[in-house]
Amino acid sequence: MGIPENTELENELRKIADYIVTLRREISVLQANEIHMRKIPAAGQELAAVVSSTEGATNEIMAIAEAVLSADASDPVAYKALVDKEMMALFESCAFQDLTGQRISRVVKTLEHIEARVSRFANYTGVEDQPGHANEQEADAAARREKLLLHGPSIADDGNTQPMIDRLLAALKSQ
Amino acid sequence: MATDTGMPILVVDDYKTMIRIIRNLLKQLGFEDVDEAADGKEALGKLKEKKYGLVISDWNMEPMTGYELLREVRADPDLAKTPFIMVTAESKTENVVAAKKAGVNNYIVKPFNAATLKNKIDSVFTPAA
After folding, report:
1. Fewer CB atoms inside 10 A, N or C side of chain B?
2. Which chain A residue has the Cα nearest residue B108?
3. A139-169 per-position pLDDT tens digit
4. To 5 degrees, how large is the angle CA A72–CA A77–CA A79?
5. Cβ separation of A165 and B60 shorter than 8 Å?
6. Would you say residue B2 lies in a domain?
7. What Cα–Cα distance (Å) separates residue A33 from each residue in A27, A128, A138?
8. Domain-wise residue ranges, chain A
9. What is the longest distance spanned by two Cα atoms in chain A?
């Protein structure tokens, strides 16, 4: 009687041990440390650089527009020379788009890298999403967003266009 | 009745770039007396110090949002009648409905152009019959 019981227990333990070994392999494939230590900070730096360069370019372009708008047009030759100079500066300012495009592509690749590994891990372990938040800070931020209707910019058909908003306001006014 | 281009306007946005854009557009429309604030809290302080003819505010700001500013303004008897235009990327129906219920005079979704800004300002001061 004792031997079959031990064999059964041994088989169960072997299954658990195999599962742990595979789980450890899957966790290592997840590259959590690589993601946490290198990929996420690098993506954050890329996005910060995008924000900085777009802001810089926008300010340069606005300064050009302000210079042209406030220029003295009484001397056509001097005015033309100034406009030509400022338009060249405007073309130069637009060069930011190439670099920001490359930076954003790298961030998208990082997100795809993380998505592939997290999906593979979730599929393997069979874990299901649980409602709720990871911590109190995250819960507070979500509650604030919900209370103050902070959705951010809409994508494609997710929000209303200006004409739709105008019609909505008119309808609300007539109520 | 034409819109008074001499009235003081308070522009509220946490992005300096957007304030500069709105300030330039207002200048092109003839409005020269423009002040700025970086969020609702700073705006509320300025509104209590100076009488403004119009508030143009973003929605999503820290620590006080434009929506909270609008409700504070409407709840204050001294400020309640100040015209208020929301200029925001928040374009969902629930945002527009909430802003209207809170007493917004007009609502502009970003990105916008000078013609839209002019049209919305004019419609606040010269409502259709």
Report:
1. C
2. A162
3. 999 999 999 999 888 877 788 999 999 999 9
4. 30
5. no
6. no
7. 10, 23, 22
8. 31-127
9. 110
